[in-house]
Specification:
The complex is a heterodimer.
Chain A lengths: L2 E6 L2 H13 L7 E4 L18 H26 L12 H27 L18 E6 L6 H9 L5 E4 L1
Helix pairs in contact in A: 1-4, 2-3
Chain B lengths: L2 H13 L3 H27 L14 H12 L4 H9 L9 H21 L26 H21 L2 H11 L2 H10 L7 H34 L11 H27 L8 H32 L2 H11 L4 H20 L6 H27 L15 H24 L5 H6 L2 H5 L9 H5 L4
Helix pairs in contact in B: 2-15, 3-5, 3-10, 3-14, 4-5, 4-9, 5-6, 5-10, 5-15, 6-9, 7-8, 9-10, 10-11, 10-14, 11-13, 12-13, 13-14
The chains are: A alpha+beta, B mainly alpha.
């Protein structure tokens, strides 16, 4: 079996389903939840929320800054030209380029981190289009055969649940 | 509001194509093609067919460049600020705004190329050792433009695209056939797990923090193209904030017009509510007052300084050849928005649209009046001149508005113009399972004022 999951009409039911799965010994990392919008009011909406994306963005910004400094230095020293008595490598005009590339570095690092850590572009194990209609999916991928019946009972015990296996 | 209803309402334009769509595409596409022919004729016959000649080398084309870069401040900047302060009423507005930024930047960024007499030799601008000994000045404000505009364009495209991923997933789930495959690719395998939502929201917060100073820097740097030159009425320290304020001002006006058109033609009356127009109308009022403050500041300092070359330009705009355009600008940018947005009775959707149309006209005139009178009236009389725009420039200027509309119509046809997931996130009815709870979101709170 590839997966077993339940579809729920609201967040409270989904939270109960998550709690029941935990009570049946399913670890948090094995529980799959999907929804059509962020579910920040519920505990399950914060599963796996630790991220270093802010730090990586800062690192990207530093890389951008270094690249801008190098680019400005190399071009201005390689093609020196006297403009109004400015030094060959003048800080004031270069600060603008350094600022722009610092920000560009931070933005690109953020996007790359999002794509990598959120698993975008990777093939998913299972999915149900009912999520787009507002259903909240709670399930387990590749459950052990021995526990399928227990999981089915746990997921189906909540009022209004639709339990499916694939 | 039920998720299925939100999906149906916002996906309707994607799945149903009416004759209006083809009519609009045909109409605006024709105007854009006409401008393309005009531009090709300029490339063939040479720059002589334009009105740009010594000493006024910057005419309509640079006016359009500055104007459209200014309009681009509608979206990403406003959207980023509203995201950071978590303004609930932003949800139906953000994408309408962000799209304007991307398309306006693309249109604006074309003008340096259009402004080249021989665009096929644009590679001469690229620094490389050559026997021509054309050594580029890396400290030129034009280099700053290149980096600022490209950073802002890249950031704005990503800022627009990232929140579209969950909506592409909704379209993927609803579509069939080839459309399902295309939107499946665009959705990047989005499933809506807590991890994905968390990462997306973190990324959007970082992008919002990064994009605000970039947006401010872009128009400051565009103003540096002028203020770094010792030209009368240009060489002033106020140009940076003056340009930024003007850009946000024209951007809000563009956003209000776009929202009103979308609301009417895509039947989005339940999503783009009068409160959204009222709130943006208040912002327009604030920016009109700020614009008036900057203009007064600039004019008073020039007048009090009484420097002959500056006073020459000053009087040309105040009471000589450019006076009709100048006072039209003041009426459009100050009198009209202050009256219409300042009086609550007029702060309706119609009032917002009328004020915004005035601001668009006024801001285009402002850009023109910054550029042409100063270039035509520098320090010595031998360089005094007038500028008469020629048909090719007028056609291309008109076509930019057609291109903007065309791109907007095409975007609204292929992408939900209102962020579906953000709208759902602002409506707690389905999510919490008990409608009308104490945790009611601003989107719902707005509704009784409709």
């Amino acid at each position: 079996m590839k997966a077993i999951y339940g579809l729920y009409g609201d967040g409270q039911s989904a939270q109960q389903a998550v709690n029941r799965l935990r009570a049946n010994g399913v670890a948090d990392r094995a529980i799959v939840v999907m929804s059509a919008q962020p579910m920040e009011e519920f505990e399950f909406g914060h599963m796996d929320s630790r991220t270093r994306i802010w730090w990586i963005a800062c690192l990207g910004g530093l890389l951008g800054m270094a690249a801008a400094f190098g680019l400005a230095w190399i071009t201005e020293v390689s093609w020196p030209i006297n403009v109004g008595g400015l030094p060959t490598f003048a800080w004031w005009p270069n600060l603008i380029i350094i600022f722009e590339l610092t920000m560009l570095g931070a933005i690109l690092a953020t996007v790359v981190t999002l794509v990598v850590t959120a698993g975008l572009g990777r093939r998913s194990s299972f999915y149900d289009p009912a999520v787009s209609d507002g259903k909240i999916l709670v399930g387990v991928a590749n459950p052990p055969e021995a526990s399928v019946r227990e999981l089915e009972t746990a997921l189906g015990a909540i009022h209004g649940a639709q339990v499916k296996t694939i | 509001m039920a998720h299925s209803r939100i999906n149906n309402d916002l996906l309707r334009p994607l799945f149903q194509t009416t004759w209006r769509f083809y009519l609009l595409v045909g109409l605006f596409g024709t105007v854009v093609l006409t401008a393309l022919v005009a531009w090709l004729s300029q490339a063939y016959f040479g720059f002589g067919i334009t009105g740009i000649r010594w000493p006024i080398y910057w005419g309509f084309y640079v006016t359009n460049f500055v104007f459209w870069i200014g309009i681009s401040h509608a979206g990403t900047l406003i959207s980023a600020i509203l995201r950071l302060v978590d303004a609930g009423w932003r949800r139906p507005v953000t994408r309408c705004a962000e799209v304007i930024t991307v398309f306006a930047l693309m249109i604006g960024a074309m003008f340096p190329i259009i402004h080249l007499g021989r665009p096929w030799q644009a590679f001469w601008l690229i620094p490389y050792p050559s026997e021509r000994l054309i050594w580029p000045n890396f400290r030129s404000p034009l280099v700053w433009d290149f980096f600022a505009i490209n950073t802002y364009l890249t950031g704005s495209v990503l800022f627009l695209f990232l929140p579209m991923i969950p909506d592409f997933a909704v379209v993927r789930d609803k579509a069939t056939g080839l459309r399902k495959k295309i939107y499946g690719v665009l959705a990047l395998g989005w499933r809506g797990t807590p991890k994905q939502w968390n990462r997306l929201e973190s990324a959007m917060s970082i992008m919002a923090v990064a994009i605000i100073p970039v947006a401010v820097s872009v128009h400051t740097i565009v103003s540096f193209d002028f203020s770094m030159a010792p030209v009368p009425m240009w060489h002033t320290t106020i140009f940076g904030p003056y340009f930024v304020a003007g850009a946000i001002f024209s951007g809000i006006a563009a956003l209000l017009i776009a929202m009103a058109v979308l609301r009417r033609f895509l039947h989005l009356q339940e999503y783009l509510l009068p409160i959204h127009f009222q709130n943006l109308g208040k912002l327009l009022l604030v920016m009109a007052l700020l614009w008036g403050y900057f203009v007064f500041n600039e004019r008073l300092v020039t007048y009090y300084g009484n420097e002959p070359s500056e006073m020459g330009v000053f009087w040309r705009t105040q009471r000589e050849s450019f006076a009709p355009l100048y006072w039209t600008m003041v009426i459009c940018n100050f009198v009209l928005p202050v009256v219409l947005m300042g009086v609550k009775y007029f702060r309706t959707i119609t009032g917002c649209v009328i004020a915004s149309l005035g601001v668009i006209v006024g801001m285009w005139l402002e850009r023109f009046l910054i550029i042409v009178p100063s270039l035509g009236h520098k320090y010595l009389p031998y360089s005094f001149a007038t500028y008469r725009p020629q048909p090719v420039e007028i056609i291309i200027a008109i076509a930019t508005f057609a291109a903007m509309t065309l791109l907007y119509v095409l975007f609204a046809k292929f992408v939900p113009i209102i962020s579906i997931w953000e709208l759902k996130a602002g409506d707690p009815t389905d999510r919490l399972g008990h409608p009308h709870s104490a945790a009611v979101r601003p989107v719902l709170m707005d509704r009784p004022r409709d």
